[in-house]
Amino acid sequence: MRPPQVRHGHWSLATAAVTSVAGVVKKVPFSSLSSGESEFGVKIPRSGIYGKVNSVREPHLAILVKGGGKASSGALADVGARESILSPSFARAFIGDLILSVSIMCKAILKVMTMNSEVPKLGSSLLVSSVQELAKNPLKEVPPRYVRTDEDSPIISHTNPLPQVPVIDMQELSSEEELKQLHYACKEWGFFQLINHGVSPSLVEKMKMETQEFFNLPMEEKKKVWQKPDEVEGYGQAFVVSEEQKLNWGDMFYMITLPTYLRKPHLFPNLPLAFRETLEAYSVELKHLAMKLLEVMGKALGMDPNDLRVLFEEGHQGMRMNYYPPCPQPELAIGLNSHSDAVGLTILLQINDMEGLQIRKNGIWVPIKPLPNAFVINIGDIMEIVSNGIYRSIEHRATVNSVKERVSVATFYSPKLEVDMGPAPSLITPQTPPLFRRIGVADYFKGFFSRELRGKSYVDLAKNPLKEIPPRYVRTDEDSPIISRTNPLLQVPVVDMQKLSSKEELEQLHYACKEWGFFQLLNHGVSTSLVEKVKMEVQEFFNLPMEEKNKLWQKPDEIEGFGQAFVVSEEQKLNWGDMFYMITLPTYLRKPHLFPNLPSTLRETLEVYSVELKHLAMKLLEHMGKALGMDPNDMRVLFEEGLQAMRMNYYPPCPQPELAIGLSAHSDPVGLTILLQINEMEGLQVKKSGVWVPIIPLENAFVVNIGDITEIVSNGVYPSVEHRATVNSVKERLSIVTVYSPRLDGDLGPAPSLLSPQTPPLFKRIGVADYFKGLYTRELRGKSYVDYLRIQP
């Protein structure tokens, strides 16, 4: 019995607006494709700094620009006004009735600041209730506004021992070995724990005691340092920009600590005397520590010592004290949602013994277990820019628990405002060009005002501006295409199909699927002559005149045909490539206007190739099931007579490949993907340990990768891995992807033979047809759909 026909949803907008990229390349002279300074140059659009920004970092960022300086232009950010930073209304807001020219205003504010007058307000946040007070009530469930369905599951791992962040000994950093360990920590983790840091234990213990006592004060006392309306410093929560916004399960007290003239007069003096004295000493000690760490990082990077000194000397320091009370439903709330820090360096002191800090490593949330007498250090976005992408700022978050409160103090160190920042000049060579544009430090911070803390996207806005390719193809949401500068790159494992009957090769397959999600397959059994014929026919297909390809164009509200996939809105950024997608098996699902209109030789070749790859996919799935220890029936029942589709990809040369993407980062929502590279141009990259690793296809090999469905079926043992297609300025790249999925009338979920009381299901069960319906209504982006199917603990 045939399964029901399924309409997969509005997968792609098949309109004239989404034109052939190859046509754009051929017809439009790039010298005429100016995007306009207002969107891609240095001018500030009225809708926000550098256009749309999806995230804000820590609350200190909204304040740091208060020091004025080269780019301050006086009042920098009345976020509600959404006006140019040079407007007279801003001047009136901060300097009363005195209307000054921009240059005079900057000088006046700097002069007033040095005289310890009131510092202008920059940044805002709506006032919300104290979570600490809320948690004192006998709550049985989390109030709706604190339920965070947008955060990943707090589950970290079910089987393997968790990795731990590196540990650095400050006293040993004069040795080459420890310096290399620091370099590794900053490059591969973005986090490390610092022991023997030189800050006296008595001062650290005093800081812990005073912070704990501060949060133990009656609410009447804490209200003396409460946030004022439309300010971010003070006691409360930061960057609450709407009444509908979800809230974090925690209170914070944030203030600028250095330079002293930027301190709010209603905050620091109202703190308990003992706390003030401790903070004075602690802030100076951590400033010295930050500068020492930056100095050795510069040395590890091989930088000119002046590069970091000029930028960070006498920089800005802020402190945020965090209180995360017990939560009745910790799996539904988040203490501080995932983000990266937009500063230079963050130094965290854990006050009590409760864990909660987690960092994202290889797509998994890894908890940090603070060591005694250690600081937790992490790289901020500014250091990522200064290091030209060698050191990465990493997403992290604070989770909560139902047992006991967690308390911490984060100290942030950033550059002084009156300088410009960008990749360090001493790191720039013809072989390592700058990945980020230069920008005034104050201008950099403006983009954070009046936005919700979210993810890690703002640093990408500092990428070199685009002046050639059409604006809709500019992808600021993609990581830099640069992969590595020093170490030889890893390569995906290689599996020999003919040897899979041996235990050793089966273990190699298991390793490849579990640790990489990708492998290259040799001796796959598909005849060389057929493979070469497919390559030739696909090349000739894309060489056809556009009039011929128009016969195969996507119809409105359909996903199959020639064009682009996963285009769900007219505003969406586009990939730099064309594709032709169609279902190939079972044959009755083929679109009658597509397959018959292909050139006859391509039709004949695809008929044979589709059958051969179906058999290959089933053999591979059988071996994977064996390697997993599954019941053979589990794979067979799900995938036998399954759904097969092919996508032919054409990525033309791009004048500025660093600003475009051939196919945005994603995981495949299918069971198995088998890729055949058509020509010799590389472009496929997989994300491994947070780094994009290029795949260099082997001769006569297929590139095989695990899809989301197999991740679900394997109950998370075999992960689907994010990958993408980059482009180049030299030559087009072509490939053909064959994807194999279960038949539509089946149910999808973890294989029953893999489940036990010790390994419960991590994913919910769903009909295959329903799975695809939900998938094709979304924009292609990361792994959000498979995460949606995870069972929340």
TrEMBL record:
Note the superkingdom of the native organism. Eukaryota
Q: Domain Fe2OG dioxygenase, which positions?
A: 315-415, 642-742
Question: What are the UniProt keywords, alphabetically?
Answer: Iron, Metal-binding, Oxidoreductase
Record the organism: Gossypium stocksii
Q: Select a single GO molecular function from the record's annotations and give it.
A: metal ion binding
Protein name listed in UniProt: Fe2OG dioxygenase domain-containing protein
**Gene3D superfamilies, per this entry?**
B-lactam Antibiotic, Isopenicillin N Synthase, Chain
What family does the Swiss-Prot or TrEMBL record give for this protein?
A: Belongs to the iron/ascorbate-dependent oxidoreductase family.
The cross-references to InterPro entries, in alphabetical order and at most eight, read: DIOX_N, IPNS-like_FE2OG_OXY, IPNS-like_sf, Oxoglu/Fe-dep_dioxygenase_dom, Plant_2OG-oxidoreductases
Does the keyword Nuclease belong to this entry?
A: no
